[in-house]
Sequence to fold (578 residues):
Amino acid sequence: MSFNSLVFLVFFSVLLILYYTLFRRYQKQLLLVASICFYCFAGPQHILYILAASGITYFCARKIAVSDKKRAARFLKVDFLLIFGIFIFLRYFNFLSTTVCSFGHLWGADSSPFLLKIIVPLGLSYYTLTNIGYVLDVYWKRIPAEEKFLSFLLFTIYFPHIVQGPISRYHQLAPQFDGEKAFDYERVTQGLQLMLWGYFKKMVIADRLNIFVSRVFEEYQSHNGVIFAVAMLFYSVQIYADFSGCMDIVGGVSETFGIRLEKNFDHPYFSRTIPEFWRRWHITLGAWFKDYVYYPISISGWMKKSSKYIRKSRGGRAGRMYMSCIPTIIVWLLTGLWHGSSWNFVLWGMFHAVLMTSGILFAEPLQKITRRLRIDTGAFSWKLFQMSRTFILCSIGRVFFRAADLSTAIGIFRRMFSQFGIWQLFDGSLYRYGLDRPNFILALLGIGLLWCVSMLQEHLPVRATLARQNIVFRWMIYYAAIFSILIFGIYGPGYDASAFIYNQF
Amino acid sequence: MEKLLELLKENYPDVDFTGNRSLVTGGTWDSVDVVNVITEIEDAFGISISMEYVLPENFDSVEKIWAMVRKLS
Fold:
């Protein structure tokens, strides 16, 4: 049941009515039942995995909470082994099998990979991380272990965050399920507004750009030059409109129930540096890797010992650089693998690892250069240059992300720079890739509107400001949004209501 | 606390430690800075900071860092 399907809208409407009427005293129970139904809609057999993962984590966390440190560590290891075991088996078995065979071929072995027909359960990557985060928080005594299994299950399976996140933290989400919530007109309408904006981003902008991007990437051998550059930039906007659109939809849905999900995007394309970009893009994933991977590695015994050795032998700066770069590289290798089980995702992760570590290593020399060149770093032109640079670098990385495999990504880069053919921008060639002239212009207008709204959101609370306007103006905006989605949304042949990009992760 | 303040000023001469109460949550320090501060404090005070204490709020001001150091000393 995709969030942009009619079935979902019916499901959501019925649930919202029941939530504030018949089940007002049992809202928590209703959300649990609704979440299980939502999950079963994707395939009832998958429910077993999430039930098993939640049961294991719940049990281990309970044991950790009442055990001494040594025993608690043992239960933590059991949880890690089982939860990551399920995750690695389902996500990476075929990838590992193919990789081992490929290496075997290099050494002259003649074997074909043993592949399993695995259907990855809905939201596996997300609930694996929420479960591991929860058990670590209990182990580090940051939160108490949940006593009721059904409460913990609701935290894991809560339908607005199970498909594409945000990756919620237990102490932030779980307490919100408690207590009876009265119908609040303002809160519900604000939630619906957010959903509307999310649908606009997804169906008018992302799905329209997808037509162009898919055609170019899937038939990459027949194009070259500037067409790839346009597809690359379009894909950056598409993935943002798609993913942040989904976050707006689920955030809005949750808000109507009186439950606030964590913010996952903060206008990332206004970032001036790559580290800033990753603090504003998929915020909850970045925060998860920082809290549960980066810090534990950075302050681990072996890391401290090795950095001490480097500081003694190579100086304090080298020690600090080592201490910053090694965990960053590990985090980005894992982030790449989390996104997908193929080498192009590994390479995408390593691309960002190189950018992040370069930022750390060259921060001081670059500051000296800008000072020596007397560059006014506060000037608008400098900020614009930094934002454009960050956007282009991220877009280059996205080619690895979008391409079907590593050889396709390399082929695209080769073709991009072989015959650039700038004239293709002006001779009507751009309209041969699925978007005719009116649709192309509509896509550009959509991007323009997205940019304008994002700029406004940077400076003022748009939804609250809209809520203060008189009723005629407000409803004009709502109708304009609804009719834009109905008229300009993409529903044509090839339309697949299940195809949110981040569903696959 | 003076020793701590001196240590921090030495490493971050541009940061105003007296007025800033949200060094991490306000974005003055990022994760790289937090790890750097942990290393410096561990060396200077002979303590070991475990994951239980690696929370943004523990590094938000000199007073909070000092409270953590005293607890672990």
